[in-house]
UniProtKB/TrEMBL annotation:
Residues 555-777 form the Glucosamine/galactosamine-6-phosphate isomerase domain. GO terms for molecular function: 6-phosphogluconolactonase activity; glucose-6-phosphate dehydrogenase activity; NADP binding. The keyword S-adenosyl-L-methionine does not apply. Gene3D superfamilies: 3.40.50.1360, Dihydrodipicolinate Reductase, domain 2, NAD(P)-binding Rossmann-like Domain. InterPro entries: 6-phosphogluconolactonase_DevB, G6P_DH, G6P_DH_AS, G6P_DH_C, G6P_DH_NAD-bd, Glc/Gal-6P_isomerase, NAD(P)-bd_dom_sf, NagB/RpiA_transferase-like. Pathway: Carbohydrate degradation; pentose phosphate pathway. This is Hexose-6-phosphate dehydrogenase/glucose 1-dehydrogenase. The lineage of its organism: Eukaryota, Metazoa, Chordata, Craniata, Vertebrata. The keyword Signal applies. Residues 34-216 form the Glucose-6-phosphate dehydrogenase NAD-binding domain. Residues 1-19 form the signal peptide. Keywords: Carbohydrate metabolism, Glucose metabolism, NADP, Oxidoreductase, Signal. The gene is H6PD. Pfam families: G6PD_C, G6PD_N, Glucosamine_iso. Residues 222-517 form the Glucose-6-phosphate dehydrogenase C-terminal domain.
Length: 786
């Protein structure tokens, strides 16, 4: 170990042009570590622990260290805070208690807090370091600044480091920065050029801590070691799709001022998931240790990625987010944020090897479990006739399991029906005893599993890479800008997209399931469920319901909108055909609509409108149960419509009601055929009952069994039992069909309908499918939201 680290350092120094360091081989020199933001959360949680481990490992190699926690607070206030943090560092298991106590004591002795605010503060720090070096007669190996501060402070600090705190000549300077690196392409460019004024590219270490995860950093070595097995299948002929998924259970409470400006795409997809994607798809470098080659091949991936269009992303937001925003940003109750907390994005690489292979990047807050993984799912062309559990019928996949989830530890899993991977890394082992858990729908025992012998924090890995001057786990300026170049257009096109609201946790159910269709991605479940208060200023919302268009609003606005749509259809039909054929349903839902239509009776082309019945109860037309009577009382009576334009259903013939032999249905059908061109109504208004019946087509009554007939007699389960109705043949010929659903009582039905497949016998309303026309659902918020 000593030898390798030592040689690597010598090589590095030599490459850096500091040949004289080789003469100092016995004493590699002194390193000053400065954590700016040294008492902040990240420093407290990971950084000090990481630097302690570095200290423990490198002291053996002859390095000497001093550590500085920097911050804006004066030293008397912050010093005790820093030491509380430092006291909490711990040793790894293989260090004895006594030795650990000793190492900790030394570490504390070498550490101090320094206020780092003004240029003078940085000058003082430099003087302090130089004085120490002189007093102890030490050579300086380098200075490492870790900027654990908000990104807006980067440029200023980098400037102060450059002007006042560069190391003595011959020693290295490394400045570590962590995302966000800008907000979009422009801001990333500005930040990069500001930093470029103060730091050389090789002095900047832009960290993506995801790259320090043990499984992520083994993706390339794994691909290399298994090259012979992977080469034949790592392509579009064999890969079904690639998934990169980071699921979180936490919300962003307390971080809203930051998060609301970024959202999940900037926070996670643009950086962590994109980096993983490049590792999976880049061409393997000839030399895995060559930073330049790794970065160059990653850049090549960005060049071949097809632009990501608006239809290649769906976004969501957890329900409580809005309230958190109002509280933390001090906004009023009607403030709405459309920042996504969930996103699924579909990408394609324009290269023969991956042509047409969907690459899915998914992440979200407040999901059902905490887990990070990426999966290469391979095509399986084997059909198992009898035993679907045969190993060769199961999914063929390689899973890079970053951590958490059901497996709980980081691992690389290869399904046994694929191949047995080789393992050449001595820090990894094969797992042979399997817990009884499933990982991505396969029991663990169906995988070959490799895992690190010792689990290490990503930050420790990265800190040791920084110390070794290894840069392939870091983001170069060029790669950073390439990534923003990819994401910025998508972010702009999503800027006005209303996210799907999800309740959070297990309750999300299948709400966030997505489906890939051609080059597009959509939510699998098309019902839009939004919470009451989420609607806020939105009066009328458009969406999709059962793959058709949906208009939703509070009842009053919805009725106004439907009335306007009917009038528009009427005017268009009169313009084109000189006549407008409107078929109206009975029931109580349309009453509000009828009232609305009477309000505008002067502008509506009633003179050229023919009114037809969708269905009728077999009662005398004067009966209070008669649909026609209702229509008459609430609409026809109030508008100037010619008498012969009104077409009630002939339910009463020969003084009897709906007798088959009297041929009432056939009579009405003939009337329709005679008046209505092609028997295609311009507009059919339907409702839907609690049992999902529409018109008078009831569940379990062979609703499709009316053949070509346009009108039929049917039986209702409720009184009056006999009905006359338009059939699906008539309804589905219409130019436009509106399905009006209102009231809280229909919420259950709407929820059910959003999930069921077409099955008109069971769910008659699912048989409404205009062949050449358009179906629009008008659902009020009560029915939609319950
Ligand atoms: C750092 O500061 C010096 C002046 O002190 C300036 O000449 C130099 O360009 C700056 N930037 C870099 C990358 O050295
Ligand atoms: C691979 O790259 C590393 C780092 O640049 C270098 O030290 C090493 O010699 C290279 N190996 C080969 C075989 O070229
Ligand atoms: C919130 O806004 C109100 C009204 O603008 C203001 O009076 C109050 O001081 C603000 N509170 C905070 C915490 O910013
Ligand atoms: C009847 O419909 C057909 C087909 O849609 C159309 O071509 C024709 O012009 C229509 N006739 C009248 C009188 O509107």
């Amino acid at each position: 170990m000593f030898v390798t680290v030592f040689l690597l350092l010598v090589t590095l120094c030599a490459q850096g042009g500091y040949g004289e360091e080789i003469d100092e081989a016995q004493r590699p020199g002194h390193v000053s570590v400065v954590i700016v933001g040294g008492t902040g959360d990240l420093a407290k949680k990971y950084l000090w622990q990481g630097f302690f481990e570095l200290y423990v490992n490198q002291v053996k190699n002859g390095y000497t260290f001093s550590f500085y926690g920097g911050g804006l607070s004066p030293a008397d206030k912050a010093t005790p805070v820093l030491f509380e943090i430092l006291k909490a560092v711990s040793c790894s298991k293989d260090v004895s208690q006594e030795r650990c106590a000793l190492l900790k004591e030394q570490f504390l002795r070498l550490s101090q807090y320094r206020q780092l605010q003004s240029v003078e503060d940085y000058q003082d720090l430099a003087k302090h370091i130089e004085k120490e070096l002189q007093q102890e007669g030490m050579t300086e190996a380098g200075r490492l600044f870790y900027l654990s501060v908000p990104a807006f402070a980067y440029a200023d600090i980098a400037d102060k480091i450059n002007s006042s705190c560069r190391p003595t000549s011959g020693a290295w300077l490394r400045v570590v920065l962590e995302k966000p690196f800008g907000h979009d392409f422009r801001s990333a460019q500005v930040l990069a050029s500001q930093l470029g004024n103060s730091l050389k590219d090789e002095e900047m270490y832009r960290i993506d801590h995801y790259l320090g995860k043990q499984v992520v950093s083994r993706i390339l070595p794994f691909r290399e070691e298994n090259k012979k097995l992977l080469d034949p299948i790592w392509n579009r002929h064999h890969i079904e799709r690639v998934e990169i998924v980071l699921k979180e259970t936490l919300d962003v409470k307390g971080r809203i001022p930051f998060y609301d400006q970024y959202g999940v795409v900037r926070d996670v997809l643009q950086n962590h998931l994109t980096e993983v994607m490049t590792l999976l798809t880049m061409s393997l470098p000839m030399n895995l240790s060559s930073n330049e080659e790794v970065l160059r091949n990653k850049l090549q991936v960005f060049r071949s990625l097809l632009p990501v269009g608006k239809n290649q992303a769906v976004v969501g937001q957890y329900q409580e987010y809005k309230t958190e925003v109002q509280q933390e940003l001090n906004k009023t109750k009607d403030h709405i944020s459309i920042t996504p907390t969930f996103a699924a994005v579909l990408m394609y690489i324009d290269e023969a090897q991956y042509e047409g292979v969907p690459i899915l990047l998914i992440s979200g807050k407040m999901l059902d479990e905490r887990v990070g993984y990426s999966r290469i799912l391979f095509k399986n062309d084997i059909f198992c006739l009898q035993n679907h559990n045969s190993v060769h019928c199961k999914p063929k996949q390689i899973v890079f399991h970053f951590g958490h989830g059901s497996l709980e530890y980081p691992a690389i899993l290869v399904s046994k029906n694929l191949f047995k991977p080789v393992l050449m890394d001595s820090e990894w082992k094969e797992v042979t005893k399997h817990k009884d858990v499933d990982v991505l729908s396969l029991p663990l025992s169906d995988y070959y599993v490799q895992t690190p012998i010792v689990q290490r924090e990503a930050y420790y890995e990265l800190i040791s890479h920084i110390f070794a001057g290894r840069k392939n786990s870091f983001i170069s300026t060029e790669n950073l800008l390439a990534s923003w170049g990819l994401w910025t257009p998508l972010l702009s096109s999503l800027a006005s997209t209303f996210p799907r609201i999800y309740p959070g946790g297990a309750e999300n159910g299948d709400l966030l399931d997505v489906r890939i269709k051609g080059k597009d991605i959509s939510y699998h479940n098309e019902v839009v469920i939004i919470s009451n208060d989420q609607i806020g200023g939105f009066q009328v919302m458009q969406g999709k319901f059962r793959s058709s268009d949906m208009v939703s609003a509070w009842t009053e606005e919805l009725v106004v909108r439907l009335a306007a749509d009917i009038q528009e259809a009427a005017e268009a039909a009169v313009r084109e055909a000189g006549v407008f054929h409107l078929a109206l349903s009975g029931g109580s839902s349309p009453l509000a609509l009828f009232q609305r239509l009477t309000l505008h009776h002067f502008s509506f082309p009633w003179r050229d409108t023919h009114v037809w019945m969708v269905d009728e109860r077999c009662v005398p037309l004067t009966d209070s149960e008669s649909n026609f009577r209702n229509l008459h009382d609430h609409l026809l009576h109030h508008v100037r419509i010619p008498y012969y334009n009104i077409h009630p259903m002939p339910v009463q013939i020969n003084q009897r009601l709906c007798v088959e032999e009297d041929g009432g249905a056939l009579l009405y059908e003939k009337e329709v055929s005679k008046w209505v061109n092609g028997s295609s109504f311009h507009f059919v208004l339907l409702g839907v009952g609690y049992d999902s019946h529409t018109a008078s087509l009831f569940p379990g009554s062979k609703v499709d069994g009316h053949g070509e007939s346009l009108v039929a007699l049917t039986e209702s389960p409720v009184k009056p039992h006999q009905r006359m109705t338009l059939t699906f043949s008539a309804i589905n010929r219409a130019h436009k069909v509106a399905l009006l659903v209102m009231g809280k009582g229909k919420h259950e039905l709407i929820t059910q309908l959003s999930r069921v497949k077409d099955n008109p016998d069971k769910w008659p309303v699912t048989g409404v499918k205009p062949a050449n026309g358009r179906l629009v659902w008008y659902i009020d918020y009560d029915a939609l939201l319950g």
